[in-house]
Amino acid sequence: MIDMAPLIESVELTTQHTLRQFLADAEYDIEMPVPTREKIAEALNEYLGGLARMRQASLAEDPRALSLSVDEAERNVNSVRSAQTEHQATLTEGVTVFPYLNRLLTHYAVARQGGDRGRLLAMLKDSPSFVQWLRFELAARNVSPVAAQQIYHLQQLLEAVSATAQSGGPLPDIEQDVTELAPRLAGLLEEPLRPGAEKGPTPIPAVNRVFQALEICTGADEEVDFLLTVIRQCRTSLRSVVPPGGMLLVMRRLNFVLSSLDKMEHCLRERTGFEDLVASAGQLEASAKTLASTVAASAPAPAAPQPIPASPHTQGMPVLFRSVLDPAYALAAGQCDADTVRAAAQHLDDAAAKMQKETAKISQADARLEAIQEGLQLMREAAETLRGLAASGNAAMLEFSRTQCRQAIERLEVAGVIKGNF
């Protein structure tokens, strides 16, 4: 246990720095209410206290105290994340679905009213990265070039605003322009990803996005800034991979990945050279693969599906109808879930559709056709009733669906389509 102490101390030092930086940045942040700032600071302080107790337990080689402190640290981590998530949710709220644009409009309004333009100018420096992020996301989707022109319109607007803000001139009202463009862009981002868009050298999509951004980075300032933005987003995403149980092992693996991202960021900011960047990217790939395998190994094994018991109420029915009604009776007895019944209803619908195609081979003059059509309609109605049962749990619908199935069987038997089990 002693060898864990330096790792824990490293996390402590990083958290202390994070807390100091957070308090300094949040003090005059108009986007962060005082209660939110206090809640996040309190969560970070509690986390620091838990880390200190964990380090002491490790040095004392006290397994019980270490186990208790690990549980405490895990709860504190969840508290920090919860507070941060709540704050991020408030940033998301606004006239658009894009947190960046909402924040920009907040600082823009302050500047228009004669307030300090410093925060607005800082936000506008990030606008090229935001625009490139939009292009990056749309490139992974099947979006027409004409529709993608919306990004160009937003870029022109942000560049004009930036020039005006830097010159000290009067700021025009841009809220209407932004609120018209934002929903169009949001609609484009709702398009499904192209097959393979999230593929990459690791099993973690957030890390693969870093490699995708790295591939298109030529070294231009705007592209480097964009890559740094993707790295920051990756860090945020990775902190969601620490599951309950096995926390210290996964945290160690996570720290290796975060360290690799730190090295990449250092290479990009300091322009240390291509070889250093390649080396840090290699470390990122290897550590991400190790993290993914560790998380997978720590995940609980999926529960084995339970067989659906045969119901005495379905005895003597053809196999198709027994396989559909048995899950319904199992649901009523608490032996299966509603999704299983929905799947059974879909199976009955599919069987009716398949049999409907077969009727195309029957002559319209055939006397059996009417009975077949009545039977197939009853099958479809029984499927709908079963879906209603899955949604409501109403036992009356169970008996109604059985009656519909029996009537369907009778009509299909009259037509000679089914005979006994099949």
Describe the structure.
- Helix 2 (34-59) packs antiparallel against helix 3 (63-92) and helix 9 (205-215) packs antiparallel against helix 10 (221-238).
- The mean pLDDT is 82.
- The protein is extended, with a radius of gyration of 30 Å.
- It has helices at 5-26, 34-59, 63-92, 99-112, 118-125, 127-139, 145-167, 175-189, 205-215, 221-238, 247-270, 274-298, 319-332, 338-358, 368-392, 395-414.
- The longest helix is centred in the first third of the chain and has 30 residues, at 63-92.
- The protein is built from 16 helices and no strands.
- The protein is mainly α and 422 residues long.
- Among the domains are: 1-93; 205-298; 312-414, no CATH class.
- It starts with a helix and ends in an 8-residue tail after the last helix.
- The low-pLDDT segments are none
Helix content, binned percent: over 70%
Strand percentage, roughly?
Answer: under 5%
Structural class: mainly alpha
- Global morphology: extended
| Radius of gyration from CA coordinates | 30 Å
Largest sheet: none
Roughly what is the average pLDDT, rounded to an integer? 82
Number of E strands: 0
Order of helices and strands: HHHHHHHHHHHHHHHH
Q: Give the number of helices.
A: 16
**Distance linking N and C termini:** 64 Å
